[in-house]
TrEMBL record:
GO terms for molecular function: 4 iron, 4 sulfur cluster binding; metal ion binding; molybdopterin cofactor binding; oxidoreductase activity. It comes from Allosphingosinicella deserti. It holds the Pfam family Molydop_binding. Keywords: 4Fe-4S, Iron, Iron-sulfur, Metal-binding, Molybdenum, Nitrate assimilation, Oxidoreductase. Belongs to the prokaryotic molybdopterin-containing oxidoreductase family. NasA/NapA/NarB subfamily. Its cofactor is Mo-bis(molybdopterin guanine dinucleotide); [4Fe-4S] cluster. This is Nitrate reductase. Residues 2-58 form the 4Fe-4S Mo/W bis-MGD-type domain. One of its GO terms (biological process) is cellular respiration. One of its GO terms (cellular component) is membrane.
Amino acid sequence: MEAPIRTTCAYCGVGCGIVATRTGARSVTIAADPDHPANLGRLCSKGTHLGETVRLDGRLLHPMIGKRRASWDKALDLVARRFRRAIAEHGPDSVAFYVSGQLLTEDYYVANKLMKGFIGSANIDTNSRLCMSSAVAGHMRAFGEDVVPASYDDLDAADLFVLVGSNTAWCHPVVYQRIRARCAAGAKMVVIDPRRTETAEEADLHLAIRPGSDVALFKALLAYCRENGLIDEAYLARSVHVPDDFWAEVGEGSDLWSAARTCDVPPTDLRRFLELFAAHPRTVTLFSQGVNQSVRGTDQVNAILNLHLATGRIGKPGAAPFSITGQPNAMGGREVGGLASTLASHMGFEPESVATVSQFWAAPNMACKPGLKAVDLFRAVGEGRIKALWIMATNPAVSMPDAGEVRAALAACPFVVVSDVIADTDTGRFAHVRLPAAAWGEKDGTVTNSERRISRQRALFALPGETKPDWWIVKEVGSRMGWRTHFAYDHPAEIFREHARLSTYRNHGRRLFALPGLSAIGNQAYDALEPFRWGGDAFADGRFSTADGKARLVPVAQRALPGPLAAWPMTLNTGRYRDHWHTMTRTGLSARLARHREEPLVEVHPEDAAALGLADGAIARVATPQGESLFRVSLSEGQRRGELFVPIHWTDRTATGGRTGLLPRPLVDPQSGQPGFKLTPASITPADIQWKGFLLAADRVERPDCLWATRIQVPAGEVYELAGIGDPARVEAVLPKGERIEVIDTARGARRIAVLREGRLVAALFVTRDGLLPSREWLIAQLGETAAAPAVLAGGPAGPREDPGPIVCVCFDVGIKTIVGAIATQQLTSVDAVGAALSAGTNCGSCRPAIRRLIDDARKIANA
Ligand SMILES: Nc1nc2c(c(=O)[nH]1)N[C@H]1C(S)=C(S)[C@@H](COP(=O)(O)OP(=O)(O)OC[C@H]3O[C@@H](n4cnc5c(=O)[nH]c(N)nc54)[C@H](O)[C@@H]3O)O[C@H]1N2
Ligand SMILES: Nc1nc2c(c(=O)[nH]1)N[C@H]1C(S)=C(S)[C@@H](COP(=O)(O)OP(=O)(O)OC[C@H]3O[C@@H](n4cnc5c(=O)[nH]c(N)nc54)[C@H](O)[C@@H]3O)O[C@H]1N2
Ligand code: SF4
Ligand SMILES: [Mo]
């Protein structure tokens, strides 16, 4: 067995340490790193199943020009030439990069340097604009620098957790486990989210506020603190600048009753929140997309920061506002200045900073003003103002708001380059040149997690095919554009050293972000670098990064919340599932992760559904002024009336429906430029379906051509769920060649087709107009096996079979029916008891909230 390698998880901003042990050329076992301070031996379902995503199928392994394979030399020369030509003809602002919080710091640094120092434009923006730019803007306004004033140790010291717009149980599961451990020791947890998420299910108090009413809530809390002597006047006097009319303005309309009305929560619940806050000075407020992704995101962030500053709950153990970051290197991107509105090393575009960076880089064409932010950037592409665009490590054709317009813009752009690890992505389809990037498990470099901790990602495998690290690809283009000596890097450590040097260059303690002592780190020491935090206990001394050293309270106002529009009576909320990562290019490869949610659902309150004629499990059309898409209806008491929730994960590659990106408005927060993904006027109507079915295939097949087709990975192939109108025979076109055995029952409109090759089952198609479909479980297990055709066509061997229901525990494949059955028959009353009986929840723990809920439900039914 090979020596284990310590690295960092590929996914979220928790930044868990992993111990990876290679077991073959492209296989690896994954364990949690017990010594990594971010996770101390824990991993969630996504981290646990990383090993299933390192296979090479679907990978982009060679540079491609159009549909043709090309050499690196040809592809890189073409990219350099087209960018040079656009700049020569139309100036530096006619080109742009759109990059990602999933790049490593070293990749990010080089891309930013090339655009801002050498091309001479700041038209480099990142998907972090869609993710936490409101937090960045809020931090800058309050602290004078984008610094997250919290650490995971604060979670172990807090007495109260306020989770705002964060489905922590699903999106930051390991942080969540740490919070729950503290709650088991007596801490309280309040969740502020319009939806009753799995996180909210476990809260001591859940405030299902009206979407977009967070400012009113936090102002009411601040007013209450002021009335009840909870303001830390000494702290304010010493460390915080308070604008003249600040308190007068806070008082207005912030009484309990008005706020309860604005937020649409029971006044008694609101009072309980105020009292919990008053009783627990050690408060950590964690917030993410429910706060950031709003057209008032920056004000919402500052409403939270105001509260912590005014009560002095910052810079002390267990007391902090905590913006938890989404992507693995969202924070590293901020450090290198990957946003169009920032420069490198936490500097901005003030003339002095521009001069500092320009001199440090010996930059010939330093950008002097901010560039286009993501939404404006793609608008400029659509208007023909961008002649050459390079997209790295992000899938904007799916993830941008009003993605239909983004697609039109990409289609019209004269030159699009896409660097990705996957060959076929929705965005890649618009590329003139596709560049094969090294993936997680092949790359070497650093990432920074939510708590400012820098960790190494280390290569586990040799670079497959002709793939190259992103930093290498960018520096090659920089060299070919004429700046060879400035981009002469051979090892990521060289880039890291330069980044560290810039962080202290003419800093004089003005910026907290600094990596002293690392500017001369040797390659070996870099390879062995242990996880460490920069900035230490930021702001513990009550000094901030502003000119006078004081933080700022920022006046913020609750905007008016208009009622439903006649044509668009619903509001659409969008977000994440527990076991999928964004556009599923990687989690979609894992059969286990696919089990938790197999299709894109639209969650609807049962009373709304009844009024709108929507049945549970039916297909419905969700429309907004921007576009429409189909989803499967899921009735949910956890939805507020009038609101819909859909996931962001499905793409053209995986489904005909579930195309969430087409729906949101491209409206942004005026300070941060972050889109308001969480609130879009929408409508929902049942879709007419005449038949339903499913297709199993051992090898990748074209997506069947019908109204509804959603793909999921299964161990020996893939499955499509299908539904449509008209003649279902059309979908047979995608069946692979082989010996075809079929049963057709015209009376019931049923067709069953099995395709065998050398006796093995390679595909099966089941369709029915009004009958039942067999359970998929047994059939899935037959894929690739020598199958008895009659049994396959019967949907399984004779005799009763157990259906485990939707999978809750993906580590041990335990379904909801199995768990509910065991709770009832064995009278299990705790998550641990379920674990002892079925193993469910005993590995990564991501499903423990779900199991707890099933136990609670059983108790409620028993008590009813
Ligand atoms: N499983 C999984 N984990 C992930 C990711 C993933 O794709 N999958 N992605 C990572 C990334 S990049 C990010 S940014 C994070 C995101 O992590 P989260 O922010 O936790 O995830 P979301 O589901 O986008 O949204 C959070 C919640 O905001 C709520 N919300 C909507 N409107 C409002 C509002 O007006 N006020 C309040 N208070 N809440 C509101 C939504 O109902 C939703 O439950 O997750 C990271 N972790
Ligand atoms: N409606 C709605 N839209 C949203 C959101 C929402 O809540 N609602 N959330 C927004 C947020 S917070 C985020 S972060 C975005 C995420 O949206 P995206 O960034 O578009 O999503 P990903 O699927 O993570 O895209 C990453 C791409 O990079 C590729 N990749 C992976 N590793 C590497 C690498 O090392 N190098 C290169 N070159 N490529 C790599 C992957 O294959 C994939 O194609 O979505 C945003 N869009
Ligand atoms: S919480 Fe899960 S997805 Fe996030 S870093 Fe840890 S293991 Fe990875
Ligand atoms: Mo994100």
